Please model this.
Amino acid sequence: MKPIRKKFENYGLFPFSMVYRDTKSPQIELPDHVHDWHELVYVHGGHGTFFIQHTIYDMRAGDLFVLPANTIHRALPDQDRPVTSTALFFGPALLLTAVYDDGYSLSGLLETGVYRFRLDERLQRLYEIELARMAEEDRERRPGYRTAQWLSLHTLLHETNRIVRAAIGEAAGPGANAGPSWLDAVLNGLEGDTEPDMRHTLSSLADLAGVSPAHLSRVFRRKTGMSVTDYLTMRRIVKAKKLLSASDDKIVWIAEQCGFESLPHFHRCFKKHVGMTPAKYRIFARR
Model:
C-alpha cells in the first residue's frame, strides 16, 4: 500500500474542511498520508491506535490529536470497536488574526510538539457542542456559515490552547501501544540526537534493533500500519519540502541531505508524492 498525499480542492479565502462523526473500519481507513493543512482529530468513541511521526498512541473517547501541516500520520481503528471521530482540516491562513495579548497566539497549540491531548470533561463537552454546530452550519449553508465555522474553530483552539502549556507533560502521555523496546529504539534512532537522520535504510534499522529486516518489516507494519520503506520515504519528502520552501540551496544538495540516492530518484519520489517537481514546489510554497 503506497502513501497517500491527501488533496484538498481550492477553497479560496476559506481553507477549511471537516469530516463529522465518521466511523472507519480497518478496511477503509486511509493509508499513511501528509498534507499542507493543519488537522484536529477529536475522538467521540471507540478504540484504535494512531501512528504519528515516530510514536504510536492509543485512541479513546475524549482524545484530541493535533497534527500540524506535513505531519506523517496513520490511524488504525480497532477491529471490534472502531473509532468514531471528527476531523477538522484548515489552512494556516485561518490562524492569521490580530494579536491582542503579548506572547499569545492561536497557533501555539500547533507548536508544542505534542500530538495527543486528553481533554477534561469541560473541554469534551465544548468540543461536542462546537463540532455539532460546525456540522450543522456546513449542512444548512445559511448566510454567514463560514464565519460561524471560523468562530467555532477559533473557540476550540483558544480554549484548548489556554490549558495546554500548564498541562503539556501530562497531556502528551506515553505511546500506550509502543510495542517492543527494540521498536522504540528504532523510532528514536530515526530522530537522531540533534536532528533526524535521513540516511537510514531497512537494513541499517534492523541492525540498530538487533533483529532481521524481515522481522522488523512485519512488526513495524503491524504496529504502525505502514511499511518501513514508505515511512522512510515520507520523512525524506517532508524534510525536502521544508528545505525547498525555506532555503535557496541547490536541489541536488537537498536531495543528498534528505537521503535520496540520486537526483533522478529524488525527482521521481517527490513528484509521485507531492504531485509536482521540487522546482515547481519551491515556487508554489513561496507564493
User: Anything to note?
Assistant: Residues 1-5, 169-178 have pLDDT under 50 and may be disordered. The longest strand covers residues 16-23. The chain has nine helices and ten strands. Residues 181-285 form a domain with the Arc Repressor Mutant, subunit A fold (CATH 1.10.10.60).
